[in-house]
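Section 3.1: Structural characterization of target chains.
Under the original work plan, the team committed to producing a structural model for every single-chain target entering the pipeline before any wet-lab resources were allocated. The record below documents one such target. The sequence was received from the expression subgroup and is listed exactly as submitted; it comprises 444 residues.
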Amino acid sequence: MASIHKTPAGTWRAEVRSSRMGSKQIRKTRTFDTKREAQAWADAVEASIKQIRHNGRILPTDISLAKAMQIWRKETQEHLEKNLQQYPNDPKYQTLYHRFLKDKSRAKLWSEGPLGAVPLKDIKQLDIEAFIDDRREEDRADSTITNDLNLLSRLFKHAAGTTSTYLPPGWRWQIEDPTRAAQQARVLGQSRKRDRRLSQNELNALETLFAAISDAQNQAPQSDSDHIIEISQGDQLLISPHDSLRYIHAGFILAIECALRRGKLFAMTWGWVNIESGSEHLLIPVQYLGPVNKGIPAYLPLSPRAVETLSALKTQAQAQGKAGSDDPVFGGLFADRAYRLLKIACDALSIRDFTWHDLRHEACSRLAEKGWTLPEIQAISGHKTLQSLQRYIHINKQAIHAKFRQTHRTEPVPDPEADAALLKQIGDLLTQNGINLNAALSHV
Protein backbone atom coordinates (compact mmCIF):
# COMPACT_ATOMS: atom_id res chain seq x y z
CA MET A 1 0.00 0.00 0.00
CA ALA A 2 1.30 3.47 -0.91
CA SER A 3 1.17 6.61 1.25
CA ILE A 4 2.12 10.15 0.17
CA HIS A 5 2.64 13.11 2.50
CA LYS A 6 4.20 16.55 2.40
CA THR A 7 7.43 17.06 4.31
CA PRO A 8 8.32 20.14 6.42
CA ALA A 9 10.74 21.10 3.62
CA GLY A 10 7.85 21.38 1.17
CA THR A 11 8.67 18.25 -0.83
CA TRP A 12 6.50 15.18 -1.22
CA ARG A 13 7.52 11.80 0.19
CA ALA A 14 6.06 8.60 -1.26
CA GLU A 15 6.26 5.34 0.68
CA VAL A 16 5.25 1.89 -0.57
CA ARG A 17 4.88 -1.06 1.77
CA SER A 18 4.02 -4.58 0.72
CA SER A 19 3.93 -7.82 2.65
CA ARG A 20 2.95 -11.35 1.77
CA MET A 21 2.79 -14.37 4.02
CA GLY A 22 6.00 -16.35 3.72
CA SER A 23 7.83 -13.52 1.94
CA LYS A 24 10.06 -10.71 3.11
CA GLN A 25 8.32 -7.36 3.67
CA ILE A 26 9.08 -4.70 1.06
CA ARG A 27 9.38 -0.99 1.93
CA LYS A 28 10.45 1.62 -0.61
CA THR A 29 10.49 5.41 -0.16
CA ARG A 30 11.41 8.36 -2.33
CA THR A 31 11.08 12.16 -2.24
CA PHE A 32 9.74 14.31 -5.12
CA ASP A 33 9.17 17.97 -5.85
CA THR A 34 5.50 17.51 -6.70
CA LYS A 35 2.68 15.30 -5.47
CA ARG A 36 1.93 14.18 -9.05
CA GLU A 37 5.47 12.83 -9.45
CA ALA A 38 5.26 11.05 -6.11
CA GLN A 39 1.91 9.47 -7.00
CA ALA A 40 3.17 8.30 -10.42
CA TRP A 41 6.24 6.71 -8.84
CA ALA A 42 4.17 4.98 -6.14
CA ASP A 43 1.77 3.58 -8.74
CA ALA A 44 4.67 2.25 -10.81
CA VAL A 45 6.32 0.63 -7.79
CA GLU A 46 3.07 -1.04 -6.70
CA ALA A 47 2.51 -2.39 -10.20
CA SER A 48 6.10 -3.63 -10.29
CA ILE A 49 5.77 -5.40 -6.94
CA LYS A 50 2.52 -6.99 -8.01
CA GLN A 51 4.03 -8.32 -11.22
CA ILE A 52 7.51 -9.44 -10.30
CA ARG A 53 7.76 -10.37 -6.63
CA HIS A 54 10.14 -13.32 -6.44
CA ASN A 55 11.35 -15.05 -3.27
CA GLY A 56 11.06 -11.85 -1.23
CA ARG A 57 13.13 -9.71 -3.61
CA ILE A 58 12.35 -7.40 -6.48
CA LEU A 59 13.58 -7.69 -10.03
CA PRO A 60 12.96 -4.53 -12.06
CA THR A 61 10.83 -5.25 -15.09
CA ASP A 62 13.03 -3.08 -17.28
CA ILE A 63 16.07 -5.37 -17.00
CA SER A 64 17.57 -6.23 -20.35
CA LEU A 65 17.41 -9.59 -22.05
CA ALA A 66 21.11 -10.08 -21.26
CA LYS A 67 20.62 -9.35 -17.55
CA ALA A 68 17.51 -11.53 -17.37
CA MET A 69 19.42 -14.35 -19.08
CA GLN A 70 22.29 -13.99 -16.59
CA ILE A 71 20.01 -14.06 -13.53
CA TRP A 72 17.94 -16.96 -14.87
CA ARG A 73 20.95 -19.10 -15.69
CA LYS A 74 22.54 -18.37 -12.29
CA GLU A 75 19.35 -19.41 -10.50
CA THR A 76 19.02 -22.51 -12.68
CA GLN A 77 22.63 -23.58 -12.10
CA GLU A 78 22.38 -23.18 -8.34
CA HIS A 79 19.05 -25.04 -8.24
CA LEU A 80 20.25 -27.97 -10.37
CA GLU A 81 23.62 -28.34 -8.64
CA LYS A 82 21.91 -28.35 -5.23
CA ASN A 83 19.45 -31.06 -6.30
CA LEU A 84 22.15 -33.11 -8.01
CA GLN A 85 23.97 -33.25 -4.68
CA GLN A 86 20.80 -34.56 -3.01
CA TYR A 87 19.70 -36.82 -5.88
CA PRO A 88 22.87 -37.70 -7.82
CA ASN A 89 21.25 -40.63 -9.67
CA ASP A 90 18.10 -38.82 -10.80
CA PRO A 91 18.23 -38.88 -14.62
CA LYS A 92 15.89 -35.88 -14.90
CA TYR A 93 18.24 -33.55 -13.03
CA GLN A 94 21.20 -34.99 -14.94
CA THR A 95 19.49 -34.35 -18.28
CA LEU A 96 18.48 -30.80 -17.33
CA TYR A 97 21.99 -29.98 -16.11
CA HIS A 98 23.51 -31.33 -19.31
CA ARG A 99 21.08 -29.18 -21.32
CA PHE A 100 22.00 -26.17 -19.16
CA LEU A 101 25.70 -26.62 -19.97
CA LYS A 102 24.98 -27.19 -23.64
CA ASP A 103 22.97 -23.93 -23.84
CA LYS A 104 25.95 -21.79 -22.82
CA SER A 105 26.79 -20.70 -26.37
CA ARG A 106 23.13 -20.00 -27.19
CA ALA A 107 22.76 -17.88 -24.05
CA LYS A 108 25.81 -15.91 -25.19
CA LEU A 109 24.25 -15.53 -28.65
CA TRP A 110 21.18 -13.84 -27.16
CA SER A 111 23.05 -11.80 -24.55
CA GLU A 112 25.61 -10.37 -26.98
CA GLY A 113 23.24 -10.05 -29.94
CA PRO A 114 21.27 -6.97 -31.02
CA LEU A 115 18.44 -7.79 -28.59
CA GLY A 116 20.74 -8.20 -25.58
CA ALA A 117 20.33 -4.59 -24.43
CA VAL A 118 16.56 -4.49 -25.02
CA PRO A 119 14.33 -4.86 -21.93
CA LEU A 120 12.95 -8.39 -21.93
CA LYS A 121 9.37 -7.14 -21.52
CA ASP A 122 9.74 -4.94 -24.63
CA ILE A 123 10.80 -7.72 -27.01
CA LYS A 124 8.00 -8.23 -29.51
CA GLN A 125 7.11 -10.65 -32.28
CA LEU A 126 8.66 -8.42 -34.95
CA ASP A 127 11.98 -8.45 -33.06
CA ILE A 128 11.98 -12.25 -33.08
CA GLU A 129 11.06 -12.35 -36.77
CA ALA A 130 14.01 -10.05 -37.53
CA PHE A 131 16.26 -12.43 -35.56
CA ILE A 132 14.97 -15.38 -37.63
CA ASP A 133 15.63 -13.48 -40.86
CA ASP A 134 19.18 -12.60 -39.75
CA ARG A 135 19.96 -16.21 -38.82
CA ARG A 136 18.67 -17.41 -42.18
CA GLU A 137 20.90 -14.83 -43.87
CA GLU A 138 23.79 -16.50 -42.01
CA ASP A 139 22.66 -19.77 -43.66
CA ARG A 140 21.56 -21.31 -40.36
CA ALA A 141 19.21 -24.27 -40.66
CA ASP A 142 15.64 -23.87 -39.44
CA SER A 143 16.24 -26.55 -36.82
CA THR A 144 19.18 -24.55 -35.43
CA ILE A 145 17.07 -21.37 -35.30
CA THR A 146 14.29 -23.29 -33.56
CA ASN A 147 16.74 -24.41 -30.88
CA ASP A 148 17.86 -20.79 -30.44
CA LEU A 149 14.25 -19.72 -29.97
CA ASN A 150 13.54 -22.58 -27.56
CA LEU A 151 16.09 -21.14 -25.13
CA LEU A 152 14.52 -17.68 -25.30
CA SER A 153 11.07 -19.20 -24.90
CA ARG A 154 12.17 -20.97 -21.72
CA LEU A 155 13.42 -17.64 -20.38
CA PHE A 156 10.00 -16.07 -21.02
CA LYS A 157 8.32 -19.02 -19.29
CA HIS A 158 10.59 -18.56 -16.28
CA ALA A 159 9.80 -14.84 -16.17
CA ALA A 160 6.08 -15.69 -16.23
CA GLY A 161 6.57 -18.29 -13.51
CA THR A 162 5.39 -21.30 -15.54
CA THR A 163 8.25 -23.66 -14.68
CA SER A 164 8.30 -27.34 -13.80
CA THR A 165 8.94 -28.82 -10.36
CA TYR A 166 12.49 -29.74 -11.45
CA LEU A 167 13.40 -26.10 -12.16
CA PRO A 168 13.66 -23.02 -9.89
CA PRO A 169 10.47 -20.98 -9.33
CA GLY A 170 9.81 -18.27 -11.88
CA TRP A 171 9.47 -14.53 -11.38
CA ARG A 172 5.68 -14.29 -11.91
CA TRP A 173 5.85 -11.36 -14.29
CA GLN A 174 2.88 -10.34 -16.41
CA ILE A 175 4.67 -11.10 -19.66
CA GLU A 176 3.88 -12.91 -22.89
CA ASP A 177 6.17 -15.12 -24.98
CA PRO A 178 6.34 -13.81 -28.59
CA THR A 179 8.52 -16.63 -29.94
CA ARG A 180 5.73 -19.03 -30.99
CA ALA A 181 3.90 -16.39 -33.03
CA ALA A 182 7.18 -15.40 -34.72
CA GLN A 183 7.92 -19.02 -35.61
CA GLN A 184 4.49 -19.39 -37.20
CA ALA A 185 4.76 -16.08 -39.07
CA ARG A 186 8.13 -17.04 -40.56
CA VAL A 187 6.99 -20.62 -41.25
CA LEU A 188 9.88 -21.93 -39.23
CA GLY A 189 9.83 -25.68 -39.58
CA GLN A 190 12.22 -28.55 -40.04
CA SER A 191 15.42 -28.06 -41.95
CA ARG A 192 15.29 -28.73 -45.63
CA LYS A 193 16.18 -32.23 -46.66
CA ARG A 194 19.93 -32.59 -47.13
CA ASP A 195 21.52 -34.96 -49.61
CA ARG A 196 25.02 -33.49 -49.75
CA ARG A 197 27.68 -36.20 -49.98
CA LEU A 198 31.43 -35.87 -50.02
CA SER A 199 33.17 -37.11 -53.12
CA GLN A 200 36.18 -39.34 -52.51
CA ASN A 201 38.47 -36.48 -53.56
CA GLU A 202 36.76 -34.09 -51.10
CA LEU A 203 36.98 -36.66 -48.31
CA ASN A 204 40.67 -37.27 -48.97
CA ALA A 205 41.38 -33.53 -49.12
CA LEU A 206 39.66 -32.87 -45.77
CA GLU A 207 41.36 -35.79 -44.07
CA THR A 208 44.75 -34.67 -45.37
CA LEU A 209 44.21 -31.09 -44.24
CA PHE A 210 42.97 -32.06 -40.77
CA ALA A 211 45.89 -34.47 -40.36
CA ALA A 212 48.29 -31.64 -41.26
CA ILE A 213 46.60 -29.30 -38.76
CA SER A 214 46.79 -31.87 -35.95
CA ASP A 215 50.42 -32.70 -36.79
CA ALA A 216 51.38 -29.02 -36.80
CA GLN A 217 49.92 -28.55 -33.31
CA ASN A 218 51.58 -31.72 -31.99
CA GLN A 219 54.96 -30.68 -33.37
CA ALA A 220 54.81 -27.08 -32.10
CA PRO A 221 52.40 -27.03 -29.14
CA GLN A 222 53.96 -23.92 -27.57
CA SER A 223 54.25 -21.91 -30.77
CA ASP A 224 53.15 -18.26 -30.66
CA SER A 225 52.97 -17.85 -34.42
CA ASP A 226 50.32 -19.21 -36.75
CA HIS A 227 50.68 -22.71 -38.11
CA ILE A 228 51.30 -22.61 -41.86
CA ILE A 229 49.52 -25.48 -43.62
CA GLU A 230 50.34 -26.14 -47.27
CA ILE A 231 47.22 -26.92 -49.27
CA SER A 232 48.07 -27.10 -52.96
CA GLN A 233 49.77 -25.13 -55.72
CA GLY A 234 51.31 -22.69 -53.29
CA ASP A 235 48.07 -22.05 -51.37
CA GLN A 236 48.48 -21.89 -47.60
CA LEU A 237 46.18 -21.93 -44.59
CA LEU A 238 47.24 -19.90 -41.54
CA ILE A 239 45.65 -21.12 -38.33
CA SER A 240 46.25 -19.95 -34.78
CA PRO A 241 47.81 -22.51 -32.41
CA HIS A 242 45.42 -24.08 -29.92
CA ASP A 243 45.47 -27.39 -28.06
CA SER A 244 42.10 -28.33 -29.61
CA LEU A 245 43.80 -28.66 -33.01
CA ARG A 246 45.40 -31.92 -31.86
CA TYR A 247 42.02 -33.65 -31.99
CA ILE A 248 40.29 -32.33 -35.12
CA HIS A 249 41.60 -35.11 -37.39
CA ALA A 250 40.42 -37.84 -35.01
CA GLY A 251 37.09 -36.06 -34.49
CA PHE A 252 36.49 -35.94 -38.23
CA ILE A 253 37.22 -39.65 -38.64
CA LEU A 254 35.03 -40.69 -35.70
CA ALA A 255 32.14 -38.52 -36.90
CA ILE A 256 31.98 -40.73 -40.00
CA GLU A 257 32.77 -43.99 -38.26
CA CYS A 258 30.32 -43.59 -35.33
CA ALA A 259 27.54 -41.49 -36.95
CA LEU A 260 27.24 -39.55 -33.67
CA ARG A 261 25.79 -36.07 -33.57
CA ARG A 262 28.35 -33.36 -32.95
CA GLY A 263 27.23 -32.55 -29.40
CA LYS A 264 27.35 -36.19 -28.30
CA LEU A 265 30.63 -36.93 -30.06
CA PHE A 266 32.56 -34.13 -28.36
CA ALA A 267 30.98 -34.82 -24.97
CA MET A 268 32.64 -38.27 -25.00
CA THR A 269 34.84 -39.14 -22.03
CA TRP A 270 37.17 -42.11 -21.60
CA GLY A 271 34.64 -43.68 -19.26
CA TRP A 272 32.44 -44.33 -22.32
CA VAL A 273 35.15 -46.14 -24.27
CA ASN A 274 35.90 -49.86 -24.25
CA ILE A 275 38.63 -50.80 -26.71
CA GLU A 276 40.35 -53.45 -24.61
CA SER A 277 38.15 -56.48 -25.37
CA GLY A 278 36.95 -58.26 -28.49
CA SER A 279 33.64 -56.37 -28.37
CA GLU A 280 34.89 -52.80 -28.74
CA HIS A 281 32.11 -50.32 -28.05
CA LEU A 282 30.97 -47.07 -26.47
CA LEU A 283 28.75 -47.33 -23.40
CA ILE A 284 26.92 -44.00 -23.30
CA PRO A 285 25.54 -42.68 -19.97
CA VAL A 286 21.78 -42.24 -19.75
CA GLN A 287 21.93 -38.45 -19.44
CA TYR A 288 23.59 -38.26 -22.85
CA LEU A 289 21.16 -40.52 -24.71
CA GLY A 290 18.94 -37.57 -25.61
CA PRO A 291 15.19 -37.45 -26.28
CA VAL A 292 13.48 -40.39 -27.95
CA ASN A 293 13.23 -38.71 -31.33
CA LYS A 294 16.95 -37.83 -31.34
CA GLY A 295 18.33 -40.62 -29.21
CA ILE A 296 21.43 -42.71 -29.63
CA PRO A 297 21.98 -46.33 -28.60
CA ALA A 298 23.34 -46.82 -25.09
CA TYR A 299 25.64 -49.53 -26.51
CA LEU A 300 27.40 -48.45 -29.70
CA PRO A 301 29.70 -50.97 -31.44
CA LEU A 302 32.89 -49.52 -32.89
CA SER A 303 34.38 -50.10 -36.32
CA PRO A 304 38.02 -51.20 -36.68
CA ARG A 305 39.02 -47.72 -37.84
CA ALA A 306 37.22 -46.10 -34.91
CA VAL A 307 39.08 -48.45 -32.54
CA GLU A 308 42.39 -47.61 -34.21
CA THR A 309 41.70 -43.87 -33.90
CA LEU A 310 40.60 -44.10 -30.27
CA SER A 311 43.63 -46.24 -29.41
CA ALA A 312 45.96 -43.55 -30.75
CA LEU A 313 44.09 -40.88 -28.80
CA LYS A 314 44.25 -42.92 -25.59
CA THR A 315 47.99 -43.43 -25.92
CA GLN A 316 48.36 -39.67 -26.26
CA ALA A 317 46.04 -39.05 -23.30
CA GLN A 318 47.90 -41.52 -21.08
CA ALA A 319 51.18 -39.81 -21.87
CA GLN A 320 49.63 -36.54 -20.67
CA GLY A 321 47.97 -38.14 -17.63
CA LYS A 322 44.53 -37.30 -18.98
CA ALA A 323 43.01 -40.74 -19.56
CA GLY A 324 40.75 -40.88 -16.50
CA SER A 325 37.13 -41.94 -16.89
CA ASP A 326 35.93 -38.32 -16.63
CA ASP A 327 38.59 -36.86 -18.92
CA PRO A 328 37.30 -35.80 -22.35
CA VAL A 329 38.42 -37.92 -25.28
CA PHE A 330 38.89 -34.80 -27.41
CA GLY A 331 40.61 -32.62 -24.81
CA GLY A 332 39.72 -28.97 -25.34
CA LEU A 333 38.01 -29.54 -28.68
CA PHE A 334 34.33 -28.71 -28.19
CA ALA A 335 31.44 -29.09 -30.59
CA ASP A 336 31.26 -25.44 -31.67
CA ARG A 337 35.01 -25.26 -32.26
CA ALA A 338 34.87 -28.41 -34.43
CA TYR A 339 32.05 -26.87 -36.45
CA ARG A 340 34.11 -23.75 -37.14
CA LEU A 341 37.22 -25.74 -38.02
CA LEU A 342 35.30 -27.74 -40.61
CA LYS A 343 33.99 -24.52 -42.13
CA ILE A 344 37.53 -23.10 -42.26
CA ALA A 345 38.78 -26.29 -43.94
CA CYS A 346 35.94 -26.36 -46.47
CA ASP A 347 36.52 -22.70 -47.38
CA ALA A 348 40.26 -23.35 -47.80
CA LEU A 349 39.58 -26.34 -50.07
CA SER A 350 36.69 -24.68 -51.96
CA ILE A 351 34.26 -27.36 -50.75
CA ARG A 352 30.82 -25.76 -50.91
CA ASP A 353 27.63 -26.37 -48.95
CA PHE A 354 28.94 -28.92 -46.47
CA THR A 355 28.35 -28.84 -42.70
CA TRP A 356 29.37 -31.01 -39.77
CA HIS A 357 25.92 -32.60 -39.52
CA ASP A 358 26.34 -33.80 -43.11
CA LEU A 359 29.01 -36.16 -41.75
CA ARG A 360 26.21 -38.07 -40.02
CA HIS A 361 24.47 -38.40 -43.38
CA GLU A 362 27.80 -39.51 -44.84
CA ALA A 363 28.24 -42.17 -42.16
CA CYS A 364 24.78 -43.69 -42.69
CA SER A 365 25.11 -43.59 -46.47
CA ARG A 366 28.50 -45.31 -46.44
CA LEU A 367 27.13 -48.15 -44.31
CA ALA A 368 24.25 -48.59 -46.75
CA GLU A 369 26.67 -48.70 -49.69
CA LYS A 370 28.59 -51.46 -47.91
CA GLY A 371 25.45 -53.59 -47.87
CA TRP A 372 24.23 -52.96 -44.31
CA THR A 373 20.49 -53.38 -43.77
CA LEU A 374 18.41 -50.50 -42.44
CA PRO A 375 17.90 -52.14 -38.99
CA GLU A 376 21.68 -52.66 -38.74
CA ILE A 377 22.35 -49.00 -39.58
CA GLN A 378 19.63 -47.97 -37.13
CA ALA A 379 21.52 -49.80 -34.36
CA ILE A 380 24.44 -47.43 -35.03
CA SER A 381 22.64 -44.17 -35.84
CA GLY A 382 19.91 -44.44 -33.19
CA HIS A 383 17.13 -43.11 -35.44
CA LYS A 384 13.72 -43.69 -33.89
CA THR A 385 12.11 -44.95 -37.11
CA LEU A 386 13.36 -46.42 -40.35
CA GLN A 387 11.53 -43.63 -42.16
CA SER A 388 13.63 -40.98 -40.41
CA LEU A 389 16.77 -43.02 -41.07
CA GLN A 390 16.02 -43.10 -44.80
CA ARG A 391 16.33 -39.29 -44.89
CA TYR A 392 20.00 -39.78 -43.98
CA ILE A 393 20.84 -42.32 -46.67
CA HIS A 394 21.85 -41.02 -50.08
CA ILE A 395 23.46 -43.66 -52.30
CA ASN A 396 25.99 -42.37 -54.81
CA LYS A 397 25.27 -43.13 -58.46
CA GLN A 398 28.75 -44.64 -58.74
CA ALA A 399 27.85 -47.14 -56.00
CA ILE A 400 24.72 -48.17 -57.90
CA HIS A 401 26.69 -48.68 -61.11
CA ALA A 402 29.28 -50.72 -59.21
CA LYS A 403 26.47 -52.88 -57.81
CA PHE A 404 25.15 -53.50 -61.32
CA ARG A 405 28.61 -54.53 -62.51
CA GLN A 406 29.08 -56.82 -59.52
CA THR A 407 25.65 -58.40 -60.04
CA HIS A 408 26.33 -58.87 -63.75
CA ARG A 409 29.60 -60.66 -63.05
CA THR A 410 28.04 -63.05 -60.57
CA GLU A 411 24.98 -64.02 -62.66
CA PRO A 412 25.51 -67.18 -64.83
CA VAL A 413 25.41 -66.55 -68.58
CA PRO A 414 23.07 -68.98 -70.42
CA ASP A 415 24.92 -71.32 -72.84
CA PRO A 416 22.53 -73.69 -74.75
CA GLU A 417 25.32 -75.68 -76.40
CA ALA A 418 27.06 -76.33 -73.06
CA ASP A 419 23.74 -77.35 -71.51
CA ALA A 420 23.05 -79.80 -74.38
CA ALA A 421 26.54 -81.29 -74.10
CA LEU A 422 26.12 -81.73 -70.34
CA LEU A 423 22.73 -83.40 -70.83
CA LYS A 424 24.18 -85.82 -73.41
CA GLN A 425 27.04 -86.65 -71.04
CA ILE A 426 24.56 -87.44 -68.26
CA GLY A 427 22.48 -89.58 -70.68
CA ASP A 428 25.51 -91.59 -71.80
CA LEU A 429 26.47 -92.21 -68.18
CA LEU A 430 22.98 -93.42 -67.32
CA THR A 431 22.86 -95.67 -70.42
CA GLN A 432 26.11 -97.32 -69.40
CA ASN A 433 24.44 -98.20 -66.11
CA GLY A 434 21.32 -99.54 -67.82
CA ILE A 435 19.12 -96.52 -67.04
CA ASN A 436 16.96 -94.84 -69.66
CA LEU A 437 17.33 -91.03 -69.45
CA ASN A 438 13.73 -90.26 -70.51
CA ALA A 439 12.37 -92.79 -68.06
CA ALA A 440 14.53 -91.30 -65.28
CA LEU A 441 13.33 -87.77 -66.05
CA SER A 442 9.69 -88.87 -66.01
CA HIS A 443 10.08 -89.72 -62.29
CA VAL A 444 11.58 -86.34 -61.38
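The first strand starts at residue 2 and ends at 6.
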